[in-house]
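[Primary structure, fold]
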Amino acid sequence: MELAMDQQKIRAMIVDDESGIRTLLRTLLTRYFSGRVEVVAEADGVESALETIRASQAQLLFLDVDLQDGMGFEVLDLLGEERKKVHVIFITSHGEKFMHRAMRRDAVDYLNKPIDPSEFTIGVERGIAHVLESRAIEQHSTSPATKRSTMLCIRHNTGTETIVAVNMIICCKADSNYTQIYLTDKRPITASKTLKHYEEVLVKYGFVRVSRNLLINPAHCHVKLDKKNTAVVQMPDGSHEQVDPAFQESVKKEFLEILE
Protein backbone atom coordinates (compact mmCIF):
# COMPACT_ATOMS: atom_id res chain seq x y z
CA MET A 1 0.00 0.00 0.00
CA GLU A 2 1.35 3.44 -0.91
CA LEU A 3 2.20 5.68 2.04
CA ALA A 4 0.62 9.08 2.47
CA MET A 5 2.75 11.94 1.20
CA ASP A 6 3.90 13.12 4.65
CA GLN A 7 4.94 9.55 5.53
CA GLN A 8 7.02 8.84 2.46
CA LYS A 9 10.74 8.80 3.04
CA ILE A 10 12.78 10.97 0.73
CA ARG A 11 14.94 8.94 -1.65
CA ALA A 12 18.57 10.04 -1.32
CA MET A 13 21.66 9.14 -3.31
CA ILE A 14 25.33 9.74 -2.50
CA VAL A 15 27.88 10.35 -5.28
CA ASP A 16 31.49 10.57 -4.07
CA ASP A 17 34.67 8.77 -5.12
CA GLU A 18 35.79 8.42 -1.48
CA SER A 19 34.18 5.40 0.15
CA GLY A 20 34.85 6.92 3.57
CA ILE A 21 32.79 10.00 2.72
CA ARG A 22 29.94 7.86 1.40
CA THR A 23 29.95 5.88 4.64
CA LEU A 24 30.05 9.06 6.74
CA LEU A 25 27.12 10.65 4.88
CA ARG A 26 25.08 7.47 5.18
CA THR A 27 25.86 7.32 8.91
CA LEU A 28 24.84 10.96 9.47
CA LEU A 29 21.62 10.48 7.53
CA THR A 30 20.77 7.42 9.60
CA ARG A 31 21.60 9.22 12.83
CA TYR A 32 19.66 12.43 12.20
CA PHE A 33 17.10 11.62 9.51
CA SER A 34 16.30 7.90 9.74
CA GLY A 35 12.54 8.46 9.69
CA ARG A 36 12.59 10.95 6.85
CA VAL A 37 15.41 10.10 4.43
CA GLU A 38 16.46 6.76 2.95
CA VAL A 39 19.71 6.25 1.04
CA VAL A 40 18.65 4.24 -2.00
CA ALA A 41 21.89 4.28 -4.02
CA GLU A 42 25.55 5.26 -4.19
CA ALA A 43 27.98 5.95 -7.02
CA ASP A 44 31.63 6.97 -7.34
CA GLY A 45 31.81 8.66 -10.76
CA VAL A 46 29.99 10.59 -13.45
CA GLU A 47 29.01 7.60 -15.60
CA SER A 48 27.86 5.40 -12.74
CA ALA A 49 26.00 8.35 -11.19
CA LEU A 50 23.96 9.01 -14.33
CA GLU A 51 22.83 5.40 -14.59
CA THR A 52 22.05 5.10 -10.90
CA ILE A 53 20.18 8.39 -10.50
CA ARG A 54 17.78 7.39 -13.26
CA ALA A 55 17.33 3.86 -11.96
CA SER A 56 16.87 4.84 -8.31
CA GLN A 57 14.63 7.86 -8.96
CA ALA A 58 16.60 9.75 -6.33
CA GLN A 59 15.09 13.00 -5.08
CA LEU A 60 17.92 14.31 -2.92
CA LEU A 61 21.45 14.03 -4.31
CA PHE A 62 24.68 14.44 -2.33
CA LEU A 63 27.17 15.18 -5.09
CA ASP A 64 30.95 15.50 -4.84
CA VAL A 65 32.33 18.33 -6.98
CA ASP A 66 35.50 16.47 -8.03
CA LEU A 67 34.91 12.84 -9.08
CA GLN A 68 37.37 10.24 -10.38
CA ASP A 69 36.14 10.54 -13.98
CA GLY A 70 35.07 14.17 -14.13
CA MET A 71 33.23 16.94 -12.30
CA GLY A 72 29.97 16.63 -10.42
CA PHE A 73 28.61 19.48 -12.52
CA GLU A 74 28.80 17.18 -15.55
CA VAL A 75 26.31 14.84 -13.90
CA LEU A 76 23.70 17.58 -13.69
CA ASP A 77 24.38 18.85 -17.20
CA LEU A 78 24.00 15.36 -18.68
CA LEU A 79 20.78 14.56 -16.81
CA GLY A 80 18.81 16.86 -19.09
CA GLU A 81 15.11 17.14 -18.18
CA GLU A 82 15.55 14.67 -15.34
CA ARG A 83 17.67 17.30 -13.57
CA LYS A 84 14.43 19.00 -12.48
CA LYS A 85 13.50 15.98 -10.36
CA VAL A 86 16.70 16.03 -8.28
CA HIS A 87 17.60 18.46 -5.49
CA VAL A 88 21.36 18.72 -5.05
CA ILE A 89 23.66 19.26 -2.08
CA PHE A 90 27.24 19.64 -3.27
CA ILE A 91 30.10 18.19 -1.21
CA THR A 92 33.61 19.52 -1.82
CA SER A 93 37.14 19.74 -0.47
CA HIS A 94 37.82 22.86 -2.58
CA GLY A 95 36.43 25.44 -0.16
CA GLU A 96 34.46 28.23 -1.81
CA LYS A 97 36.16 27.78 -5.20
CA PHE A 98 33.16 26.24 -6.95
CA MET A 99 30.35 27.78 -4.93
CA HIS A 100 29.16 30.15 -7.69
CA ARG A 101 29.05 27.33 -10.22
CA ALA A 102 27.03 25.27 -7.75
CA MET A 103 24.55 28.06 -7.09
CA ARG A 104 24.07 28.62 -10.83
CA ARG A 105 22.90 25.02 -10.96
CA ASP A 106 20.29 25.68 -8.27
CA ALA A 107 22.09 23.75 -5.56
CA VAL A 108 20.24 23.42 -2.27
CA ASP A 109 23.48 23.74 -0.33
CA TYR A 110 27.28 23.59 -0.66
CA LEU A 111 29.13 21.75 2.12
CA ASN A 112 32.87 21.63 2.69
CA LYS A 113 34.91 18.60 3.72
CA PRO A 114 35.56 17.63 6.43
CA ILE A 115 31.79 17.48 6.97
CA ASP A 116 30.53 19.46 9.94
CA PRO A 117 27.49 17.60 11.36
CA SER A 118 25.66 20.81 12.32
CA GLU A 119 26.15 22.31 8.84
CA PHE A 120 25.17 18.98 7.33
CA THR A 121 21.86 18.81 9.21
CA ILE A 122 21.00 22.37 8.15
CA GLY A 123 21.71 21.50 4.52
CA VAL A 124 19.65 18.33 4.64
CA GLU A 125 16.72 20.18 6.22
CA ARG A 126 16.84 22.57 3.28
CA GLY A 127 16.94 19.64 0.89
CA ILE A 128 13.94 18.00 2.55
CA ALA A 129 11.98 21.24 2.27
CA HIS A 130 12.74 21.46 -1.45
CA VAL A 131 11.64 17.87 -2.05
CA LEU A 132 8.42 18.27 -0.06
CA GLU A 133 7.58 21.45 -1.92
CA SER A 134 8.10 19.70 -5.26
CA ARG A 135 5.96 16.79 -4.10
CA ALA A 136 3.11 19.08 -3.10
CA ILE A 137 3.15 20.84 -6.45
CA GLU A 138 3.33 17.59 -8.39
CA GLN A 139 0.27 16.28 -6.56
CA HIS A 140 -1.86 18.87 -8.28
CA SER A 141 -2.26 20.03 -11.85
CA THR A 142 -1.06 23.53 -12.66
CA SER A 143 -3.69 24.09 -15.34
CA PRO A 144 -5.97 27.16 -14.86
CA ALA A 145 -8.93 24.90 -14.14
CA THR A 146 -7.25 23.41 -11.06
CA LYS A 147 -5.15 26.27 -9.71
CA ARG A 148 -7.43 26.58 -6.69
CA SER A 149 -6.41 23.19 -5.38
CA THR A 150 -2.67 23.67 -5.98
CA MET A 151 -0.75 23.14 -2.76
CA LEU A 152 2.53 24.62 -1.60
CA CYS A 153 4.84 23.22 1.06
CA ILE A 154 6.25 26.07 3.15
CA ARG A 155 9.31 25.49 5.27
CA HIS A 156 9.16 27.53 8.50
CA ASN A 157 12.16 29.26 10.00
CA THR A 158 11.60 26.96 13.00
CA GLY A 159 12.29 23.86 10.89
CA THR A 160 8.69 22.63 10.59
CA GLU A 161 6.61 22.52 7.41
CA THR A 162 3.09 23.59 6.49
CA ILE A 163 1.24 22.74 3.30
CA VAL A 164 -1.23 25.40 2.21
CA ALA A 165 -3.45 26.00 -0.80
CA VAL A 166 -1.93 28.61 -3.10
CA ASN A 167 -5.25 30.45 -3.34
CA MET A 168 -5.10 31.02 0.45
CA ILE A 169 -1.97 33.16 0.11
CA ILE A 170 -2.74 36.89 0.16
CA CYS A 171 0.81 38.13 -0.24
CA CYS A 172 4.46 37.47 0.57
CA LYS A 173 6.70 40.10 2.17
CA ALA A 174 10.48 40.09 2.33
CA ASP A 175 11.96 39.86 5.80
CA SER A 176 15.74 39.86 5.41
CA ASN A 177 16.60 36.29 4.29
CA TYR A 178 13.14 35.07 5.29
CA THR A 179 9.68 35.68 3.87
CA GLN A 180 6.49 36.56 5.76
CA ILE A 181 3.58 34.76 4.08
CA TYR A 182 0.09 36.05 4.87
CA LEU A 183 -2.92 33.72 4.51
CA THR A 184 -6.65 34.29 4.26
CA ASP A 185 -7.23 32.57 7.62
CA LYS A 186 -5.06 35.27 9.27
CA ARG A 187 -2.14 32.92 9.93
CA PRO A 188 1.21 34.57 9.20
CA ILE A 189 4.03 32.15 8.38
CA THR A 190 7.70 33.01 8.61
CA ALA A 191 9.22 30.98 5.77
CA SER A 192 12.90 30.07 5.64
CA LYS A 193 13.37 31.07 1.98
CA THR A 194 13.74 34.45 0.31
CA LEU A 195 11.05 36.41 -1.49
CA LYS A 196 12.85 35.77 -4.77
CA HIS A 197 12.32 32.05 -4.28
CA TYR A 198 8.58 32.47 -3.76
CA GLU A 199 8.34 34.82 -6.71
CA GLU A 200 9.86 32.12 -8.94
CA VAL A 201 7.46 29.50 -7.55
CA LEU A 202 4.26 31.56 -7.51
CA VAL A 203 4.50 33.67 -10.66
CA LYS A 204 3.00 30.80 -12.69
CA TYR A 205 -0.09 31.03 -10.49
CA GLY A 206 -0.60 34.70 -11.32
CA PHE A 207 1.27 36.29 -8.41
CA VAL A 208 2.85 39.67 -9.21
CA ARG A 209 5.93 41.37 -7.74
CA VAL A 210 4.98 44.99 -7.02
CA SER A 211 7.98 46.11 -5.01
CA ARG A 212 11.33 45.00 -3.74
CA ASN A 213 9.61 43.68 -0.64
CA LEU A 214 6.15 42.59 -1.77
CA LEU A 215 4.63 39.83 -3.93
CA ILE A 216 0.84 39.86 -4.20
CA ASN A 217 -1.95 37.49 -5.17
CA PRO A 218 -4.29 39.50 -7.45
CA ALA A 219 -7.16 37.28 -6.31
CA HIS A 220 -6.99 39.08 -2.95
CA CYS A 221 -5.05 42.29 -3.59
CA HIS A 222 -6.31 44.91 -6.03
CA VAL A 223 -4.21 47.35 -8.04
CA LYS A 224 -5.62 50.84 -8.52
CA LEU A 225 -4.45 54.17 -9.90
CA ASP A 226 -4.28 57.14 -7.57
CA LYS A 227 -4.81 60.79 -8.55
CA LYS A 228 -1.25 60.99 -9.82
CA ASN A 229 -1.79 58.00 -12.13
CA THR A 230 0.45 55.94 -9.88
CA ALA A 231 -0.35 52.30 -9.31
CA VAL A 232 -1.02 51.33 -5.70
CA VAL A 233 -2.13 48.06 -4.13
CA GLN A 234 -5.25 47.88 -2.00
CA MET A 235 -4.94 45.06 0.54
CA PRO A 236 -7.90 43.01 1.80
CA ASP A 237 -7.98 44.99 5.08
CA GLY A 238 -8.36 48.25 3.17
CA SER A 239 -4.79 49.43 3.67
CA HIS A 240 -2.61 50.45 0.73
CA GLU A 241 0.88 49.39 -0.32
CA GLN A 242 3.00 51.46 -2.66
CA VAL A 243 4.21 50.01 -5.95
CA ASP A 244 7.91 50.73 -6.33
CA PRO A 245 8.81 53.11 -9.19
CA ALA A 246 10.87 50.36 -10.80
CA PHE A 247 7.77 48.13 -10.94
CA GLN A 248 5.23 50.78 -12.01
CA GLU A 249 5.29 50.06 -15.74
CA SER A 250 5.26 46.28 -15.43
CA VAL A 251 2.42 46.38 -12.88
CA LYS A 252 0.34 48.73 -15.02
CA LYS A 253 0.90 46.53 -18.04
CA GLU A 254 -0.09 43.43 -16.05
CA PHE A 255 -3.30 45.05 -14.84
CA LEU A 256 -3.99 47.25 -17.88
CA GLU A 257 -7.50 45.96 -18.54
CA ILE A 258 -8.50 46.32 -14.88
CA LEU A 259 -7.02 49.79 -14.56
CA GLU A 260 -8.75 50.98 -17.72
Remarks:
- The radius of gyration is 21 Å.
